[in-house]
Design a protein that fits this description.
four-stranded antiparallel sheet; mainly beta; 1 helix
């Protein structure tokens, strides 16, 4: 009887102290990320008292900072996990984070009479192409062909973009 009563009293004392100090429950891990090309800045939004953070950036790199910044070696989508620890336990959240390389637009062209062929030579992370052939005609194909109505000099522009919101434009005359 005596040991059980003492153990119960100590447990109640710890629970009361934890409640007074705000340790009433395990926190809920949360974070946001802001991506600029291949660098991601992470902000901890965990509720409750947190005593330590453990970040796994999904590329074999990690951090114990509260709000770390991480530069990825290659563009792609990475599963980033935050494990937040408090005196009452741990909680983890994982989110996909996509990083991109700047899409640098470039192309080559060949023309035969009124017919022109365009070949994309862009670098970086490119998810979309927007061509303006300089005669009010456009295309979203990666490597389009175009037939002009009349001979002449045309200012052709290519805009490349990616899912990270980056875009790059190059124009030249043909």
């Amino acid at each position: 009887g005596g040991w059980a009563t003492l153990r119960y009293d100590e447990t109640q004392d710890l629970l009361i102290r934890a409640a007074i100090n705000g340790f009433t429950k395990v926190q809920t891990a949360a974070f946001t990320s802001a991506v600029n090309q291949q660098t991601a800045n992470f902000t901890d939004n965990t509720s409750g008292l947190v005593t330590s953070w453990s970040w796994d950036f999904g590329d074999s790199q990690s951090s114990t900072q509260q709000n770390p910044s991480h530069t990825y070696a290659a563009p792609g989508t990475y599963m980033v996990c935050l494990t937040a620890t408090s005196p009452c336990g741990t909680n983890q959240i994982c989110q996909a984070v996509t990083v991109c390389a700047l899409p640098v637009a470039a192309y080559s062209s060949s023309a035969n009479a009124l017919n022109a062929n365009f070949t994309d030579a862009s670098t970086g992370t490119v998810d979309a192409w927007s061509w303006d052939f300089g005669d009010a005609q456009t295309s979203t194909q990666q490597n389009p062909s175009h037939t002009y109505a009349a001979a002449g000099t045309y200012n052709v522009c290519l805009i490349t973009s990616n899912s990270c919101g980056d875009a790059y434009t190059v124009c030249s005359t043909i």
